[in-house]
Design a protein that fits this description.
binds pyridoxal-5'-phosphate, 4-stranded parallel β-sheet, 10 strands, Rossmann fold, 2 domains, 6-stranded mixed β-sheet, alpha/beta, single chain
Length: about 325
Amino acid sequence: MLPREEFAHLPTPVEGLPHLSKLLGGPELLIKRDDQTGLAFGGNKTRKLEYLLGEARAKGATRLLTTGAAQSNHCRQTAAAAARSGLDCTLVLVGPQPSRPSANYFLDQLLGAEIIWTDRETRDLTLEQACREAEENGAVPYLIPYGGSNALGAYAYFSAYQELRDQMAGELPDWIVFASSSGGTQTGLFLGSVLLSGPRVLGISVDEPAAILQGKIAGITRDLSALIKQPVEFDVDDILVNDAYTGEGYGIMNDRDREAIHLFAETEGVLLDPVYTGRAAGGLLDLIRRGFFNRDQRVLFWHTGGTPGLFADRYLAHI
Ligand SMILES: Cc1ncc(COP(=O)(O)O)c(C=O)c1O
């Protein structure tokens, strides 16, 4: 058993999306609500942080450090996990620093995190330096990788795959579709689909070319299989990543993202986010319209959270 701090609201609900399914003329769509995992507005990092915090505690950590974009959901949730666990938190955010705090960046501050601004080139150095300084100041630092995507973080999504199988025994969907970026979520779900039979797993890349993301996921999958001592054989091409929807790049909204956000909100009352789930849902809608899925299949959209991003100054005007 891996050490774990339990704070996620699990199992998250699985719901139907009947209006959207009807509007599209099939397949039957379902949604797994990991936007409701708890911990400062929820999202996929809550599950990962349970195991990362478990290890941090076991190592006697007093300060969590991590990094991400200015509107990082991972950083917001790490700050919340630190606060509820009585730990300090340093976030190295890739700038430029917005002229006023909003959305995730606002919440980072509210949750009491120390924030250091950096740029993409110096990000890792800045993080290392912050770690060193924390140590010099008597803290025990615990470094959480980008996106919480190492074997421990991915284990949380291996468990989540099992959660879904238990929850939907006898009526499992054919496909799981979701937003993939640093690869931890997809690693856990992918290993679940390899070791336990069940739905096929398709990650919609938010920003990375498929080959790069597949390579990352393959690496974390090997680490995870070693961690849980379950040897696995797979081909990199078994890791299904669609990179047709990355558009102009990370966090730059396009018409497809926007349409998906509106459609989910207007037909089902489900809120998506402007960076991850909006993009993944845009890809899902396009794949459906192109006939990628059979009309009689069942497709589960795994909502990975991120909804505070809707309120970021940079997106409000564009949604
Ligand atoms: C809302 C949301 N969805 C999906 C992802 C992608 O998950 P992963 O980094 O595990 O690929 C992230 C990552 O930050 C996220 O914040």
